[in-house]
Amino acid sequence: MNNSPLYAYSAGKGFNALQATVVFIHGAQHDHSVWALQSRWFAHHGYNVLAFDRSGHGRSPGKAAASVEIMAEQLWTALNSRNIAKTHLVGHSLGSLVALEMAGSAPERVLSLSLLGTAYPMKVSDSLLEATKSDPPAALHIINAWSHSKTWGGFSQKPQIMGPGSVSIWSNLRLMQRIAAKNGPEVLHADFFACNAYADADKVIKAISCPTLIMNGDQDIMTPPKAAKSLAEKIPGAKLVILPNCGHALMAEQPDSALKTLINHIKPL
C-alpha cells in the first residue's frame, strides 16, 4: 500500500473547524482540477474544501492504488491526519466508487454522498481494458470520445467552450495526457482495472445511511442512466438526477446544472 501524503486543493481558503468539509474525488486519469467550479463555490460559501489528487495522480506522489478499497483507505487516512471526523463526499466515475466505499465502510462519518457519472458494478469492456495496458495513447482517445455526449458533435463542432481559448473535449484529453506524462502510462490501466475489479460491494451499499445523490448524463456511454438507476434503487432514499444533453463529463458539459444539483443536495444538510 502507498502511504505517501495526498495533495488536496482547498480553493484558496484556510481550514475553519466550525465549517463542514466537502471532499471531492476525481475519476480515472484525472486530478483535482476537474472540480474547479464546484470546489470553489463551496469553499466560498461556508465550507472547507478538499479536492484530492489520488495517489499517483497530479501532485500526489507514489503509485496509483491497486483497488477501490485501498483508495478509500488512503483518503480516510488523509482525513484523519487533518482531524476531520465527518465529511460530505462527492465522487465522479471511479471516484464515485471510492466515495461509495468510504460511505459504506464508515457510515457514521459521512454527512452526505454525491455520486456523479456512476454505476455499480462499473465494468470495463475487455478490449478497452486491454488497450489501457497495451496502447495507452489510443485508449485515451477512445475514453475521451466516449466521455462526451453527441450534443457536442465531436472535436470539429462549435460551440463547446468553457471560456475563451478552451474547448472541453480537447482540455479533457490534454489533462489525461498530462497525467500519463507526469505520473506514468501505467496509471491508466491501474485505474480502469480497479473500476472493473470492484464487484463485491453489496455489504458496503447496504450500510450507507446518509442522504445520497446519484447524478448521471442522459447520453452517458461510460455509465449509462440505466446503470445509475439500478444503483439508486439499491440505496434507500437515494435521489436520482439525470442531466439532459450530457455525457460522462458532467462537470464540463453541464457545469451549472451539476453545481446547482450538488448545492441543492448538500446545502440543506
The low-pLDDT segments are 155-160
CATH homologous superfamily (4th level) name: Alpha/Beta hydrolase fold, catalytic domain
Query: How many structural domains are formed by the residues?
Result: 1
Indicate the radius of gyration in whole angstroms.
Answer: 17 Å
Q: Kindly report how far apart the N and C termini lie.
A: 34 Å
Q: The CATH topology is what?
A: Rossmann fold
Mean pLDDT: 93
CATH class: Alpha Beta
In CATH, the architecture is 3-Layer(aba) Sandwich
Instruction: State the strand order across the main sheet.
Output: 1-3-2-4-5-6-7
Taken from the alpha-carbon principal axes, the silhouette is: globular
- The percent range for strand residues is 5-15%
- How many β-strands, per DSSP? 7
Count, helices: 11
How would you characterize the overall build of this protein?
With 269 residues, the protein is α/β, with parallel strands linked by helices. The chain has eleven helices and seven strands. The protein has a seven-stranded mixed β-sheet, sandwiched between helices. Strand 2, helix 1 and strand 3 (48-52) form a beta-alpha-beta unit. Helix 2 packs across helix 3 (94-105), helix 4 packs across helix 5 (136-146) and helix 4 (126-134) runs antiparallel to helix 7. The relative contact order is 0.16.
